[in-house]
Specification:
583 residues; alpha+beta; 2 domains; 10-stranded mixed sheet; 4-stranded antiparallel sheet; disordered C terminus; Geranylgeranyl pyrophosphate synthetase
Length: 583
């Protein structure tokens, strides 16, 4: 733990400057889309999905599978702010960063605002570094960057998919806006859910309807930005209660989002979808909350001053409950790759074209040099394809990738490559979201986990782990337990990355393979059985009879602390599962 640089209590913010803390001068600066692929790639400029509601409301299934909490950190774990600056470089190369006081995600501002309002309920951390003379880089920190939906959480994500049209392969759109707040020049990044064409007038849409007896449940709120280069962000808030504007409005204020789309559902169908212009509500909220907003501006300035005076200008802001924040020295983790710090080193002087050219050349040369020393890194590329009917160009920026040793769980992957895939279960926790990250690392590193095997092949390999009696030799033949345990991870890998084939036969094979694993405790240890079952239930909608069959084999936490460590010890075989030889 680093040394304490300062403690900032709520009482330190009791006398903020009297000037108004309002947002003015809103400008769109850059945007990008994350694209699905084997390497982290962003498309610059990006385009949010086009609001395109279907003519007939479809019946939606509940959200399931993996969802991002912080996609930037999930895909760029070492430098979550890097895609922001790569997009800025590509789309707005003459932008002067030396004048900027704050660069941050909207989420960080929301956390600090809750603190000054005295409404913080969760602990949080924010990494802070000062770049150039004064620019504070606030990096978002989350306990986990993605999650696996294992229970009912509404229809928010599937509602988005059904009511918007986006870039094929895009997994999220982010926008960077610039504005003045509390005497500070700020760059704010936020995720955007969609935009509407200019022919749609939000003012002409009726206000939210009355909810009768709880029959209609408010599921989500989607804020929509205008066409062209929208200056405002849209967010999705999924909840199983009435929309609380006191909670939503601050988020809309931070990103200056003027339009909110609210969907109500009944029996899995959204027959009541309304669009609201909330611009006046945001302005009214800003006026009514000036005391808290002045404290927010003062808090940000205090944090920046403390970090700027520290020896390495790098720190961590921590909130652990109560009425104070603690600023501690950082872990020497820089917020950006070295080449991006050149954006502050070169000062813009008027409209001197030579200076602009030299600045771009210096950055490009440094970037090229840094990429040449790291295997597998990309370079900036752009195109002008029209996407999603939006009239907006798409492009591609291959964001510099983390090296193997910075990818999530690369140390465990190295052990698995050297000593067998079964090592993953031995060394990992029992968090599905962590396994999702590990499997994506395996995929990104080009490791052939399946080695051409399908479910049928994997089942055969699982069965080879069993001991068998040879009637001719009148002796027991030991099974290949290492092969079976490696195959259990291959089965798990198929479930996690959804590499299954379609059809009922595929689910039956997956069910039989899962049941084989959980029913053979002498071959497959606790973590293996637990994770394979969880992944199967996450990926498939299982029947009552299938669940009943799985429940015949309860997975209890081992009473012996060393059960997982004795992976290669063979013991007496369990009773044979009845459908062992089902295919």
């Amino acid at each position: 733990m680093g040394s304490v640089l300062a403690e900032i209590s709520l009482s330190d913010l009791d006398t903020p400057p009297p000037s108004n803390a309002t947002i003015t001068g809103l400008q769109h600066i850059a945007s990008y889309n994350w694209l699905e692929g084997s390497v982290p790639t962003i498309s610059v400029p990006g385009s949010p999905p086009l609001w395109s509601p279907p003519r007939v409301a479809p019946k939606l299934t509940p959200d399931s599978g993996m969802v991002y909490i912080d996609q930037n950190a999930a895909r760029s774990p070492r430098y979550p702010l890097e895609p922001l600056f790569r997009a800025l470089q590509a789309e707005n190369p003459d932008f002067e960063l030396g004048d900027i006081d704050l660069v941050t995600d909207r989420n960080n501002i929301r956390k600090l605002l809750r603190f000054v309002q005295g409404s913080s309920s969760d602990n949080f951390e924010i990494r802070v570094e000062i770049a150039g003379d004064k620019t504070a880089l606030f990096t978002r920190v989350e306990i986990k960057t993605k999650d696996i939906i294992q229970d009912f959480r509404g229809f928010g994500h599937n509602f988005e998919k059904a009511y918007t049209k986006g870039i094929p392969g895009s997994t999220g759109h982010h926008r960077i806006v610039h504005y003045l707040f509390g005497g500070m020049k700020c760059l704010i990044r936020h995720e955007t859910d969609g935009f509407i064409e200019s022919k749609v007038n939000p003012d002409s849409i009726p206000q939210a309807a009355v909810v009768f007896d709880g029959v209609l449940d408010l599921l989500g709120a989607v804020s929509i930005s205008e066409t062209g280069k929208p200056t405002s962000k849209q967010l999705v808030t999924v909840m199983n209660r009435m929309l609380d504007m006191a909670d939503v409005t601050p988020q809309l204020w931070i990103s200056q989002t003027p339009t909110l789309v609210i969907g109500y559902h009944q029996y899995h169908m959204f027959n009541n979808v309304q669009m609201r212009n909330v611009k006046q509500e945001i302005q009214d909220w800003e006026t009514a909350n000036q005391t808290a907003l002045r404290k927010l501006a003062l808090l940000i300035k205090k944090i920046s001053q403390v970090v700027g005076r520290s020896s390495d200008r790098n720190a961590i802001v921590k909130y652990n409950g109560g009425t104070k924040l603690t600023v501690t020295s950082g872990k020497q983790e820089r917020a950006l790759p070295e080449d991006l710090y050149l954006l502050w080193d070169v000062k813009k002087q008027g409209a001197d074209d030579d200076m602009v050219q030299d600045r771009g050349k210096a950055i490009d040369e440094s970037h090229t040099k840094s990429l040449s020393s790291v295997p597998g890194l990309g370079h900036i590329k752009r195109d002008t394809n029209d996407i999603a009917g939006s009239g907006q160009p798409s492009g591609g920026v291959s964001a510099p990738l983390p090296t193997h040793d910075t990818m999530p769980f690369s140390d465990i992957v190295d052990h698995a490559v050297q000593d067998g895939l079964r090592q993953v279960f031995r060394r990992m926790s029992t968090s599905l979201s962590d396994y999702q990250s590990l499997c994506e690392t395996l995929k990104s590193r080009g490791i052939d986990v399946l080695a051409g095997r399908n479910l049928r092949d994997i089942m055969k390999d699982l069965r080879k782990g069993k001991d068998d009696w040879d009637p001719d030799e009148r002796r027991e033949i030991k099974g290949f337990k290492s092969l079976a345990r490696d195959s259990a991870f291959r089965l798990f890998y198929i479930f996690i990355l959804d590499l299954r084939e379609s059809g009922a036969s595929d689910q039956n094979m997956a069910y039989n393979a899962t049941t084989f694993v959980i029913s053979h405790r002498r071959i497959f240890k606790y973590k293996t059985r637990k994770m394979v079952r969880q992944a199967f239930e996450m990926r498939y909608s299982i029947s009552y009879n299938q669940r009943k069959g799985l429940d015949k084999w309860p997975i209890d936490n081992p009473s012996r602390g060393n059960e997982e460590e004795e992976e290669d010890v063979t013991t007496e075989e369990e009773d044979i599962y009845s459908s062992d030889w089902s295919f």
